[in-house]
Here is the input.
Amino acid sequence: MDAATHGKWLADTRRFWDAGSEFEAKYRRICASTEFAATDDEAELRRLWEQETKEIVPVILKDIPIQREWTCLEIGCGVGRLLKPIAGRCKRAVGVDISERMVDWAGRYLEGVPNAEVQLNDGASLAGVAGASVDFVYSHLAFQHITLVEVVDAYLREIARVLRDGGYCRIQNWREAPRPVGQALRDLVRPVLGREKYRSPRYWEWSEGREVKFGGTTFHARAWKKRLRGCGLRPISTELGVGHDSWMWTTSVREAR
Ligand SMILES: C[S@@+](CC[C@H](N)C(=O)[O-])C[C@H]1O[C@@H](n2cnc3c(N)ncnc32)[C@H](O)[C@@H]1O
Here is the structure.
């Protein structure tokens, strides 16, 4: 992607994630499921927030032999709600996020957690992270909102760069919805008829002038694993539909250089 296009995509994406208030950031952006949307009651929202956080940490750490001396990195860390429990289990927890406001709020959210830090990034790179310096990279509720495949690929290359050999990567993203048989047959003839490739209704791609909302890219599990392998990340497990019907979790290991 050229620098000008990246700049426009970045500005549009930040506009969406730079929420108007901390309340909006936590309960209308980071946690935006129907349960959260159904109430304005702050005590109830806090309860849901704590509950969801508690439930998701073991899912993130599934297959991961996390060690006290590890450095862990979260892509799209928001206000740092997951960095906090992860920091309690490792030496250093680093988060990157595209949104300046999320990063500011994370500073406050992580007060009193000296081994956690958050960096503002350009939405596509891990420029502030040294090569082969990380033991574990994870991402939850962020890849599903990345609206360009080029950016997803840029991150996979960056993850492979910052992970040490044998380091772990666990990513949640959206899987392409299984296609009905009729659709699969129609897909076979689409290219012959000069039509565009079919994408599930969830798939949402940015282009200039399109306002960023909650949509993002989706991948068939097989195609996703191929992308990981192409970057030197060897998939060791995939779970479909864990946490949400559309979710896909993949754990991979950095191949030796
Ligand atoms: C739904 S929130 C999830 C936050 C956190 N992972 C959690 O589960 O609490 C998505 C976060 O990803 C960030 N984000 C979206 N696109 C990003 C990108 N391309 N690079 C880095 N961060 C991104 C947003 O600013 C937001 O803070």
